[in-house]
UniProtKB/TrEMBL annotation:
Composition bias type Polar residues, residue spans: 880-896
Name of the protein described by the UniProt record: Putative ATP-dependent RNA helicase YTHDC2
Domain YTH intervals: 723-853
Segments forming domain Helicase C-terminal: 59-229
Positions of region (Disordered): 862-922
MF-aspect GO terms: helicase activity; RNA binding
Ranges of Basic residues composition bias in the record: 902-913
Lineage: Eukaryota, Metazoa, Ecdysozoa, Arthropoda, Chelicerata
Length: 922
């Protein structure tokens, strides 16, 4: 039972090392017949699946009595055993003042303030005790360890490719690990190692640990193998040549999953999506989330969540079991009542960045049980992924498709959930209301993981766990969830990292891009084929034969009104056509028809969430915060502006503003403008907030490249002009129409700061408007710093702040061709039409442009805008598919379903002549 031998300082060939270990055991311990009987009696009296803490306490007592100084390293399988043994040691030594010990715990997901002190020597007479997982086998070397107690167990994850379930369980270590643990004793002098298992058990160990390729998901490996395999060679045949090849069924299931998420086509060839997933240094499904967020324009929040999932959970295990409730309460606070573990990750990261910018991140991490090192790693991963997206062309340096445009919907939680749902498919959960159970396609009984915020916290001892579980399921407002990972504990599967999602999100984004031909079953056909016998309804009797069946795959189907089903199918087809188009040409901008599809999707998803009374948290789209020493605080500016009665301060902290609350003054795609000798620092800083490339890990790579390639920077200089001119970019003509009618405008946070800074200097501010993609300037107006009490829905975009009053001076169309001779010296001498929102013009150029607008063509009235909007709506180029929506029916924006029942009016049809003409063209 007790093994004692001198550890070898040099372990070469594993077979030789194993033989030396066996010889040492045989030579130093002769087992008598009496000892053998005692050993047999002991092994029959204990459960070898559990750790014998009593035996470890006895060994520690023996070590205390040896009077030999040196630290004790105890290998344990996991968190529960570490905490249990630590409490036992504290209790045993409580009444023994002569025994002075210092306890340390080492665990990959535990973080204590004194963990670094484990490497420091202790005072004479104090015994250092280190309770560790296998992290101390090779990752950590502690020089003063003299004694090692090896329990012989380790916790490892194993993956079942048939069910898609991950199992974390304790098992016996390998012979190589046993020898490695023995080598931890006496790094600087001879030591002792106690193995808590018999020689027979040691001989039954495997020589080496099971290779990772045999116990983890390999779909990422299969995708990479496609690049290395010869042409037309199956992935399974290529991986079969590995030294330890995975079973054929495991490889086949991984390839099937890649086909399910559209990374591979039916012939195992890489799709456009698969090629982009190969470029991303993350797991394929996480990469799909990122790409969907790019097209849906909610990049930043999804990027943060994906990095948390790709690395590790930022929440650490508490050092005291009693603190588990505190961890649960901290997570519940971050969840904002959204029934989402993904929201917890996003909010925790944003709160950590805020705490870091304010200088108290250590206290924040300690109070909320968050790992500071994990958060720093997530920041670096975000930077790496952003760099890859730029290299692939998904993020453009300016204009449509830049980082600001790709975050237009970042404040809309329903859109963020849709991107996450698309990536997690087929990891979906449905609620069986009759049995009050969670079920998946392969599991009939699923529970939420103990770390999930969807678990209900017990209020008193009267409530059983089963009762709380049923109460939580009953309180969920809809029947669908998606999860990140399924883990099995015993016979029960636990879903890890879950989020509630609406049925409409499932119908639009789950499943393959190409649905089967029988995806939509009309009422008569559905009844004849028996589809009315099963579904996700609580009460099938409520549905009559007039319902259509909308089928996503063999497990997911919905019963809806026939017209609603057709509309959803058409919108789904439009979305996937747009997504494939974006994958094929990442750097190509979106057309107005593309933008209409995205707006429609965002609108119906928000309406669906509102119909189910789901929460929409404010501020979730805020950008990452760089640490800036020279940042002009909006609060400071507001205080200065409030001193003047004629200027009302802007609301910089409006919760509906996606980016104001972040306090960010520059972003990786916005290069910091360096002041030159012609610009005084004071006047420059008063109108622009600068940021150093080193101030944010996110901004470093891009800014460093850009700054190394440019030796000069042009920027606004201080002039004697009393007027400052700014370009304002509008997303749609409708926004300009409302602005002309109501004399208001809402600005992004960056533009708002520039304008208020100019007003503070006593300058008159002229706004020159241009609709993106129109090829024209539409007029100019005078900015007034007075807030407007109006907030039309056209100005409710996530990236817009408070509405201000403006005075339109001239409303006229002037084409870009008429202004091509005007170059802006404050924008690297680019033509004036090549400007982003908030770009300031050199005064003489701005004055010339306004004169051209005054001499321009007919006034851009409300009626002409309506006519222009109709022309653009019905004359844009068609998609490749020939659905009714692709032939110009922009009524989708008004007629798509907006509630859980998906009931809306039918879209207006064009007259028969136009329809015939379109079909002839098709």
């Amino acid at each position: 039972m007790k093994r004692q031998f001198t550890p070898s300082y040099h372990v070469g060939n594993i077979d030789n090392a194993e033989q030396k270990a066996n010889n040492a055991i045989d030579g130093q311990l002769e087992i008598q017949e009496e000892d053998k009987l005692l050993l047999d009696a002991y092994t029959h009296s204990i459960d070898e699946e559990k750790i014998d803490h009593d035996l470890i306490i006895c060994l520690l007592t023996r070590i205390y009595a040896s009077q030999e100084e040196g630290a004790v390293l105890i290998f344990l399988p996991g968190y529960d055993d570490i905490v249990t043994l630590r409490d036992r040691i504290i209790n045993e030594n409580e009444n023994k003042p002569e025994i002075r010990v210092m306890l340390f715990t080492l665990h990959s997901q535990m973080q204590s303030s004194d963990q670094k002190r484990v490497f420091r020597p202790v005072l004479p007479g104090v015994r250092k005790l280190i309770l560790s997982t296998n992290i101390a086998e090779t990752s950590v070397t502690i020089n003063d360890v003299l004694f090692v107690i090896d329990c012989g167990k380790v916790k490892e994850k194993s993956y079942d490719s048939l069910t898609g379930v991950t199992q974390l369980k304790a098992g016996w270590i390998s012979k190589a690990s046993a020898i490695q643990r023995r080598g931890r004793a006496g790094r600087c002098r001879p030591g002792l190692c106690y193995h808590l298992y018999s020689r027979a058990r040691f001989n039954s160990f495997q020589k080496f640990q099971v290779p990772e390729i045999l116990r983890v998901p390999i779909h990422e490996l299969c995708l990479q193998a496609k690049l290395l395999a010869p042409p037309n060679a199956p992935i399974a045949d290529f991986l079969a040549k590995a030294p330890d090849p995975p079973p054929f069924m495991v490889t086949r299931n991984a390839v099937t999953l890649l086909k399910t998420i559209d990374a591979l086509d039916p012939w195992e060839e890489l799709t456009e999506l698969g090629l982009h997933l190969l470029d991303m240094p993350i797991e394929p499904r996480l990469g799909k989330m990122v790409l969907y967020s790019v097209v849906l324009k909610c990049l930043d929040p999804v990027l943060t969540i994906v990095c948390c999932l790709a690395y590790r959970d930022p929440f650490i295990l508490p050092s005291q079991p009693a603190q588990k409730r505190s961890v649960a309460m901290a997570k519940r606070k971050f969840s904002c009542d959204t029934f989402s573990d993904h929201m917890v990750l996003l909010r925790a990261f944003q709160a950590w960045q805020k705490a870091k910018s304010e200088g108290h991140e250590r206290n924040f991490c300690s109070r909320n049980f968050i790992s500071h090192a994990t958060m720093e790693m997530i920041v670096g991963m975000r930077s790496q992924l952003l760099g890859q997206l730029r290299a692939s062309g998904f993020i453009r340096p300016r204009g449509s498709g830049d980082i600001r445009d790709l975050n237009s919907n970042s404040e809309i939680w329903a859109v963020i959930k849709a991107a996450l749902c698309a990536g997690t498919y087929p990891n979906l959960i449905r609620i069986d209301r009759d049995r009050q159970q969670l079920i998946t396609q392969k599991e009939s009984k699923v529970r939420f993981h103990h770390s999930s915020v969807l678990n209900k916290l017990p209020v008193s001892a009267k409530h059983s766990v089963a009762t709380l579980r049923k109460q939580m399921i009953a309180e969920l407002p809809c029947d669908w969830l998606f999860y990140e990972e399924m883990m099995r504990t015993g016979s029960i599967a636990h879903a890890h990292c879950c989020t509630l999602v609406t049925p409409l999100s499932i119908a639009l984004f789950a499943g393959p891009a190409r649905l089967p031909l029988d995806a939509l079953h009309e009422p008569d056909q559905a009844r004849l084929e028996g589809y009315m016998e099963e579904g996700d309804s609580e009460d099938d009797s409520k549905y009559d034969n007039q319902k259509a069946m909308f089928k996503i795959d063999d497990w997911i189907s919905f019963r809806v009104e026939p017209e609603i089903a057709r509309l959803v199918l058409q919108l789904r087809q439009k979305w996937h056509a747009l997504f494939l188009k974006r994958m094929h040409a990442p750097s190509k901008g979106l057309t107005q028809a593309d933008e209409a599809v995205i707006r429609t999707i965002a609108g119906v998803l928000v309406a669906e969430d509102q119909a189910l009374n789901l929460q929409q948290p404010a501020g979730i789209g805020q950008r990452p915060r760089p640490l800036m020493s020279d940042y002009t605080s909006p609060v400071h500016l507001r205080k200065q502006m409030s001193a003047s009665p004629s200027h009302r301060s802007p609301n910089y902290f409006n919760p509906n503003n996606a980016y104001n609350s972040s306090g960010l003054s520059c972003y990786p795609d916005e290069l910091p403008v360096m002041p030159n000798a012609a610009t005084s620092p004071s006047s420059y800083n008063s109108s622009f907030s600068s940021c150093s490339p080193q101030s944010s890990p996110l901004a470093m790579p891009f800014n460093a490249i850009q700054m190394s390639s440019k030796q000069e920077f042009s920027q606004p200089c201080v002039t004697n002009s009393r007027i400052r001119y700014f370009i304002i970019k509008a997303n749609t003509s409708r926004v300009v129409e409302v602005s002309m009618a109501k004399n208001i405008w809402a600005f992004t946070s960056t533009t708002e700061r520039k304008l208020m800074s100019a007003v503070k200097e006593g300058k008159e501010v002229i706004l020159i408007f241009s609709i993106q993609g129109s090829g024209h300037f539409q007029g100019f107006a005078r900015f007034t710093p007075h807030l407007s009490d109006q907030r039309p829905p056209e100005f409710s975009a996530a990236n817009l702040g408070t509405c201000y009053q403006i005075e339109w001076i001239k409303k006229a169309n002037i084409p870009f061709q008429s202004t091509r001779h005007l170059q802006n010296a404050w924008n690297e001498n680019r033509k004036v039409q090549i400007s982003r929102d908030g770009q300031e013009l050199e005064p003489s150029v701005g004055e010339s442009l306004c004169k051209l607008i005054v001499k321009g063509q007919p006034v851009f009235t409300s009626d002409s805008m309506k006519s222009s909007k109709r022309n653009m709506a019905y004359s844009r180029e068609n998609y490749s598919d020939s659905t009714p929506l692709s032939r110009g029916q922009m009524q989708w924006e008004q007629n798509l379903p907006s509630s859980s029942s998906w009931k809306r009016k039918k879209p207006r049809r064009r007259n028969r002549a136009n329809k015939s003409q379109s079909e002839t063209k098709g």
